[in-house]
Amino acid sequence: MRARALVAYNVRRIRVQRGIPQEQLAYDAGVDRSYMSGLERQEANPTVDLLDRLAETLGVAVSELFVRPSKGAPPPAILPKGRKPKPKRGKRT
């Protein structure tokens, strides 16, 4: 597995394990959502600085983004589609 594929696999795996929507991870890491999508599809080539931000946002060491999956490991699951509803705010008085 090439480095770009490892990063894509592990970012998605960790994000899904933590229940973080792709859009939220992108926002928290300061990345455009479409770029994050491309990264997970192996279309984007992230910089070292971005890998640092993603690892920090996910709460892992950068090395965790390069862990090889075991043979026969299934691809990371997909979170349910749809956005989470925004919390309702109380009336201002």
UniProtKB/TrEMBL annotation:
InterPro entries: Cro/C1-type_HTH, Lambda_DNA-bd_dom_sf, TransReg_Diox_bact_type
Biased amino acid composition, Basic residues: 81-93
Region feature (Disordered): 69-93
Keyword line: DNA-binding, Transcription, Transcription regulation
Record flagged with keyword Transcription: yes
A Pfam entry, by short name: HTH_3
Residue span(s) of domain HTH cro/C1-type: 11-65
Full protein name: Helix-turn-helix transcriptional regulator
Taxonomic source organism: Bradyrhizobium agreste
Source organism phylogeny: Bacteria, Pseudomonadati, Pseudomonadota, Alphaproteobacteria, Hyphomicrobiales
